[in-house]
Design goal:
The protein has helices at about 5-20, 25-50, 60-80, 85-105, 110, 120-145, 150-165, 180-195, 200-220, 225-245. It is mainly α and about 250 residues long. Helix 4 packs antiparallel against helix 6 (about 120-145). The longest helix has 26 residues, at about 120-145. The relative contact order is 0.16.
Amino acid sequence: GLVDDYVIWMWFLIATTFGVGLLPDGRPRTVALGASAGLAAVHMGVLAAAPEPYQNGMLLVVAAGLLVLLVACMETITGRPDGWRWKGAGAAGGLLTLVLIVVDQWFARDLRDDPFEEVPWLVVFGGAVLLLAFFLVRVVRQGRSGAARPPLVLGAAATLLVVADVCGVYLGGGSDFPQIPVYAPALLVLLLMAAQSLDDRPELLAAVQLTVVAGLVHNLAHVETGPAFLAVLFVAAVCAGAAVYLPAGVPRSR
């Protein structure tokens, strides 16, 4: 089941989406863009936990969530000063992320099983590894280019803490992991958006990170969590906020 205030979170997503469409370019719109991407990813995970995610009109909700993510991906790609090769890599990463989220929706039961056993699990986590590699390459590249080190390190640390926390679900043992299809969309979107905004749009990255963390902490789908899982998320949130407000990492609107 869902938490009682799930509808409020849906309205948060609607509000941030309207913010992206109505606000002029600047920091508030950038924050709305990041928050809409994070909230859409969280909702995609919640829908994956539903018994019949494509019944009772839910297909329209899934399509709307994917559209929000598509807009966020396209904006982060076109807003970067990269050459065509990096823009192409970002576009491929965005397309891969959307495809993997659809796989997560359709084959949620297979993703609940033990790791490495089902083809959908291999597809989703194989894609996640590619996105992680893309993210790490971006981190190394920016580090070598002389980007502000404390914000860069803290922003990267916040992302990697969430990744480690989600993958740490498997350390609890057992053969059924209902958390994985719920967390997978947030993991994928976080890696993609972090790779695209770590160096030049810290407020966008922080908005994605903090909304994802808030959604996982609030546990909209009522999956099992624990104190250690929540503690790591809180540390990730602190790192995300510090990366934005450190003197060397004051947000720069684009």
